[in-house]
Design a protein that fits this description.
Arc Repressor Mutant, subunit A, alpha+beta, 400 residues, 8% strand
Length: 400
């Protein structure tokens, strides 16, 4: 217990890149001398640099050492998992001490970062089993894509090539009803897209009237918005803009702001606002649950893209907590992606996931979907005349 408390007092001292490298090397081998670390090729610095760095880690209480001939043998005081857990606890303690309102209910933070009850663990297990954002979006738009492909590539060509020019056929009631139903679905989708676009445009225009442009190199125009506004979001489809509220600039440290901006830029690279626009076009009430699943997966994917080590994971988790507990944010437009969305994945689960962050293993892409699509296309082309004939017969049955 004393060793744990001692480590906790030094875990908040920011470690440099070389110190982190030394710790990882020692965690990997268990213990080593300076010469053994250099011989293992895991460290490429000079002998004196390695010796000085190890001595500094020893004085910080992160290493212990024993004489080994004329040198010292170093070993970590705690395991890598224990160290990361302590660093997370110190980060939360720092967050609590920097609270704007010290009397805020602690139950939120306790529920967020320290309560490992069954329900939260079950939720995290479900996150691991969920499909990724790309797969969920594909599933969501697949009905629209398949229907459009069948109409454009099969139904329309079968009519032009196989329907006699002199045919005098009347269209039955069922055919008229299906045409009206299809037209109504398309019209509802277009109206939904136009309405969402106009709301987003009005929102961005109102923000532009109360903002100043920031000089950044993030790749998209960035503005600091005064007055009520969502804390941090990317708005727009064709020309996305990064909006940062003045309140967010006050709450977040520089490291936290950098991590939050990387999160939003991940949404830009993934064109998530354009995907939202597509979802508005093909919106169906019974697919709302799948929309929420996609939003959950999109936020998790942006979290992953913004994090590259344990420190940035802690910074992003701290930014999420600060923004989530602040009540001054304004509602967010439909065509925008925010650091803390109004609906979707619970903040507690995202923070828990970031606090237990581990470097993901490199995964190779699967060729199975491409092979499946190619196979279906080859079969369809080989039997295209037969497919047209069958479609013509089917449409004849429907319209009579």
């Amino acid at each position: 217990m004393m060793r744990w408390l001692k480590t906790a007092t030094v875990a908040d001292r920011r470690l440099g890149p070389l110190e982190k490298q030394m710790l990882r090397a020692l965690w990997a081998c268990g213990d080593a001398t300076v010469r053994e670390l250099l011989e293992s090729k895991s460290i490429s610095s000079a002998y004196t640099t390695v010796m000085t760095t190890l001595d500094r880690l020893y004085k910080k209480g992160l290493l212990e050492r024993t004489p080994d001939g004329r040198a010292f043998r170093y070993r970590p005081v705690v395991s890598e998992e224990e160290f990361n857990r302590t660093a997370a606890a110190v980060e939360v303690e720092r967050l609590l001490s920097s609270a704007v309102h010290p009397s805020m209910p602690l139950s939120f933070l306790v529920d967020t970062v320290t309560r490992h009850d069954t329900a939260l663990l079950d939720e995290l297990q479900r996150f691991r089993k969920r499909l990724n954002a790309t797969a969920l979006f594909t599933m969501r738009v697949l009905p629209l894509f398949c229907a459009s492909a069948i109409v454009l590539l099969v139904a329309v060509p079968s009519f032009f090539y196989l329907e006699p020019n002199s045919a005098e056929e009347s269209v039955g009631l069922s055919g008229i009803l299906m045409a009206l139903g299809g037209g109504a679905i398309i019209l509802i989708g277009v109206v939904s897209v136009v309405a969402a676009w106009r709301r987003a445009s009005r929102f961005l225009a109102s923000c532009a009237a109360n903002s100043r442009q920031l000089k950044t190199d993030v790749g998209v125009p960035a503005f600091e918005v005064s007055g009520p506004a969502p804390a941090l979001l990317v708005g727009g489809v064709c020309r996305p803009r990064l909006l940062v509220s003045g309140r967010a600039a006050e709450l977040l440290s520089q490291r936290e702001m950098d991590a939050a901006i990387r999160h939003e830029l991940a949404h830009v690279r993934r064109r998530d606002n354009l995907k939202k626009l597509v979802l508005h076009f093909c919106g169906f009430p019974f697919l709302a649950a799948l929309d929420r699943e996609w939003l959950t997966a999109a936020e998790i994917a942006a979290d992953d893209a913004a994090v590259n080590d344990e420190q940035t994971a802690l910074d992003l988790a701290s930014a999420l907590l600060k923004i989530a507990r602040d009540s001054s944010s304004a509602p967010m437009p439909a065509l925008a992606m925010s650091l803390v969305p109004e609906r979707g994945v619970a903040i507690s689960a995202r923070v828990e996931r970031l606090l237990s962050w581990k470097r993901p293993a490199t995964q190779r892409g699967s060729w199975l979907p491409l092979a499946l699509i190619t196979g279906i296309a080859v079969v369809a082309v080989a039997h295209y005349p037969w497919v047209l004939a069958q479609m013509h017969e089917f449409t004849e049955l429907l319209v009579r």
